[in-house]
Amino acid sequence: MAVDLTQDGELAVLTLxxxxxxxxxxxxxxxxxxEAFDKVAHMDVRAxxxxxxxxxxxxxxxxxxxxRNRPLMDQKTGAExxxxxxxxxxxLPVASVALVGGYAFGGGSELAMACTFRLAAPNxxxxxxxxxxxxxxxYGGTQRLPRLVGQGRALEIIKTGRNVRxxxxxxxxxxxAVVEGDLMQAGREIAxxxxxxxxxxxxxxxxxxxxxxxxxxxxxxxxEADLSTLAYRLTDAEEGMAAFxxxxxxxxxxx
Length: 255
Hints:
This protein is an alpha/beta fold. The protein is about 50% helix and about 15% strand. It has helices spanning about 25-40, 65, 70-90, 105-115, 140-150, 150-160, 165-170, 185-190, 200-210, 215-230, 235-245; strands spanning about 5-10, 10-15, 45-50, 55-60, 95-100, 105, 115-120, 125, 165, 175-180.
């Protein structure tokens, strides 16, 4: 299988398993990824880790052979497929962590950017090189990159098609951390920092922060107030505040 989905305790692990093609994304693989995300939504897990098989690449992007000589509407449908699959990560009830080793080009970078968090090995190389093919990113890159690194820097990266190595990616906010050593273990560790908290509350926090990038401050504050009020209605809020007063560890029930 080119897309493997397994469960490791409280974690779901999705592996792009096509190392001979640098884990490139065919349209069928995109569909398989979408189906895997749908399964994660119904699994008893608290986070999703996404990685690529082999040492050379997380994901080298789209399968270029599939992009040529297609009718106009098929080209648009292909872009919408990639966008819709990656957008499923925004709707998952759990956070996702991209574990990027080696190349993450085109759709590979776009998949990583769609995740909640990104960890990179020292050899990680990001890039949106579509301009070199006479194209622009089509799976969300033009929208997610500026939200992560700012519009000016995103324009420079996209318009030059240049590579962004791990150290720079961390400096500009494209990745959360560069990890020396076992990337999968680092993914488990960062997931462990938030999986012990209430899943609905984590979702409220993610929704509030995400909306900050596409609305006014006034509207964003209203969204925050609404979501904060909803959090107070959870039994997890009562448990959390009671545990604080009683100087014990909270036992959240996700409700």
